[in-house]
Structures
1.
Amino acid sequence: MHVVILAEFATASGGAEKVALESARGLAEAGARVTYIQGIAGTADPLLDHARITRVALGLPDIWSLGAAKAAAAGLWHRAAARRLAGALAALPPGIACLHLHQWTRTFSPAIMPVLFGHGAPVVATLHDYFLACPNGVYYRFDRNEPCALRPMSGACLAAPCDPRSRLHKVVRVARTGLLGRALAGRPLHVVHVCDASLGRIGGMLGHLPLTHHRIDNPIRPVAGPGAEPARGDAIAYVGRLTREKGADLVAGAAHAAGLKALFVGAGPLEDALRAMPGTEVTGWQAPEEVWAILRRRARALAAPSRWYETGPLTVYEALAAGLPVVASDRSGAAEKVRHGETGFVVPPEMAPLANAFAALRDDATVTAMGVAARARFQASPLSLAAHAGQLLDLYARIGGPGRCCAAA
């Protein structure tokens, strides 16, 4: 089977890129032939170093490097990206089972959709966010610091000043969403949801498009070594971008109220404010292996109290697999993997419930039992690369049709 994976980056700078890379590697290890098409110029992750993976770099710029006017135009309809992608696909041999898209907002733009559907192979898109329906991509009101309750692209949505950058940026994003809808109209796109919550939420927003919905968990690579010993830790840990929508400020306040330290591994707009709060430590971004070395030494639990409807944050799954309890927001797709009171806590992203959950984690016996249970649950039903690749191959075989999956590995 020959599969084409499309992403704008070939390095794991975020969750979507990481899943694209892991998927490519997992498919190759399962025997598939993979062509990884990278939109934006840059280096490649070592995960792509495999005999059955061919990387094609289109050498496109990140549109945010072009200046405001050019970035807006390219974000709406990047003709150069469409032309280069068309050329890359035309150079591939026949018999491709599937074109699997992971990103399209940083340089590809809606202009690539006619190119993909014109190729003839089935088109699949993994929904790591809500950009297929929501102009700002996260279905969140940044002007109110709360999840959105409006129907995307309705009159109320168009009028809402919800964009994190500016009203003008919202106008551009609305236009892009409109062009995306037109580019997809009447075209049979298969979409992969990474959590049940996303399937239920965004599935209802997209009834006007001829979509076929599928549900596949994101994969993770378990942290090497023995299970964590959370009772040895002294802090509630948070890993990721330090923003209000992800709840970083809530972790600091709730940990202090519970009499625990707060440890932040990451960077972002709230970094200075968090450093100024009592009992907090901010390490900045760290290499993956160093992140887990820090968590093994310091963390009693991982906190992921997102205010927005986050889909599938990988750090939550990685923490559970390593044997760390998790306190997750009930708005996050990651909460589906946390067993409340057994492997962690699922609570509203509010100060009091979080502080109560953190206070319970001060007890050594509690965090030890939760960590053991979390690791055992993962081992019983792992979100492994092999399992992920197997589900993808099954999906491609089902949607490919006769003769579509016959290419030699």
2.
Amino acid sequence: MSKNIIITGGAGFIGFHLSKQLEKKGYQIYLIDNLSRGQLDLEFKNFIKKKNIKFIKKDLKKKLKLNIKNIRYIFHLAGSVGVENINKKPYQSLINNIITLKNIIDFNSKQNNLAKIILFSTSEIYSPLIKNNKIKFPLKEKNKIIFENENISRDAYYVSKAINEKLIQFSKIKHLILRPHNIYGPRMGYSHVIPELIKKILNEKNKKTNKTIIFSPNHKRAFCYIDDAVDQIIKLSLNKKIKNSVFNIGNMKEEIKVIDLAKKLKKTLFRKSKLIRGPITAGSPFRRVPDMNKTQKAIKKYKYTNLNNGLIKTLDWYLKELKR
């Protein structure tokens, strides 16, 4: 039987790194992306030339028709993401994320052998609980999900993911729900906190600005390097005994304030950078650190990439990329 895998959002950050590791295991991988946010860059173009990789440009908001048989796993990462993008189109983003999953479930339901669906949810699921002081840290998967009466545009993202979690559970299809927490590394675009800070500090170094404003400076985050995240994802997803459950993906060991993260980057990028504490970003949780005990128990002993080493690898990639 063929070892076929579908990865939606395959041109994106996690999707691309995930596909690279699965390709090494000999799977035939079908990457689906509409390229609304994913990058058709040189790195991706070279990757999809491999014989067991096929790229399919497709809009998942439309009914899914694919001539692919014997699919073992569907990793569903596609959807509307990014705070700026969600804030501009909250209603559309909410609908997009729900419809794309529904189309994936409908497609899978028509297969002779149903694939295991790995749904990528979000750490934002916990945000209302954090805001209302109804949760303890680190954040456990078993916490209840709540919706607030008053909405801000950013809420459309976590609401869509919460609905999707219930959608996959009610479908009765074998699945996993994964909640990534602040994953970082090479090729993650520029809309995440680390590449945003890199770009800001370099702009100051190149005299495009005379200071670097740090938003939500005292908010704490626990960052997880992409290789560690992908390893967790694969070990959980390919384990036949693990199904119909929720797992955090991340690293709970090195929590850091955003301002201290900026100071780390400043040392490497531009020591004279003038870091200015800015306002709190609307909707940003003051702390985010996952409880990884459930995940670590499932995947056994695990050694994480420490933040300093992960930042060095990330900086090396971005500095080369910005020189192109």
3.
Amino acid sequence: MSNHSSPGDLNGEVAQAAVGLPEPTLAAEAIARVLQPLARLMIDHGLQLPSMVDLIKKALVDEAARAYGLADKGSSDTRISLLTGVHRKDVRHLRDVPAMQTISTPMVPLAASVVARWISEPRFLNADQSARPLARTPRRGVPGEADFTSLVGEVSRDVGARAVLDELVRLGSVELRDDGFVVLKTIGFVPNEGRSESFHFLAANVAEHLAAAVHNLAPDRVGPPKLEQSAFSQDLSVVQVEQLQQLARRLWAKSLQQFLQTATVAEQRSVAQEGPKYRVRFGVYFNDTQQDVPAANAQASAAPKKNKRKPKP
């Protein structure tokens, strides 16, 4: 078993600013590996090379203009072309092309916030910190006890509790029982597979994870590195992989609840504080992949076996 540590410091200690030269060869090797699952996503969903080339060009132009502009001057088409390798004529065209819209999931942020509050606010929890079933409306529950309508009202006054409930039921996150109580089916917000919400979280989660790693490797990084680490194990059987996955889910559920409880307090304290505001995303992932057979073993298994003949008597 091993622990992978990126430049991100596990203890959160302030590190010296990273100083170094660009590493195009190492970056190309890393990008080649990152592109493998992206290629699978493209093939699975019918995206072909020409459309992806346009997306990459647009991303290069937009990021160069946003992050590498000169003070009070921005970036000229020529400067962006030099930074990115995109032809200046294409740069001029792409700067006028509107950015691709974020995947439209208007109810997802609200639904996720409702679930987050449900599993982090003590009034909505049992003694063992599990989410309590909530009466759909105050009149269906016990007077003085929290209910689903009040939960939604604490998160937003703009959308009705019934609309949020219908969305959570559609996403498979909650169940409405015959007795009028709403039950949270999973810890955290996990939409059903194959929906636009899953693509929304793919974009948000992977982008934020990659952004943290890219920040840590920036040649001119200033300030402490961001947390970006993982642990891995190998030579595992299928049974052991499944057991580790279940353990990872339990650990995540516990960490998620603790983090959300602290984040709720942090949001309340930040309301009255002046200055720029930031968003954070704290996540975890688990993936298993069949290991490649070592070349020596593969050759040995592929070699034809010679038939041994018994000597004639």
4.
Amino acid sequence: MMFNNRITINPKVMGGKPCVRDTRIPVSIILKLLSKKIPYEQILNEYPELTEEDITSCLEFAAWSVSETSIPVIG
């Protein structure tokens, strides 16, 4: 499966976790870095195989995935 031509889900790669296309870099890693306010430039330096569009696609994928999931309300 491919999302936005940049995020892939393949059961044979990283246990089926969503990854940036043509890499073994999980979307979750990029999201964790962004949540820690790591700038795009630093992420791109640490992962030179990525592009700015890849990082943006990770955010788009995260937004899409939570909008497609039901979360039970307890209370």
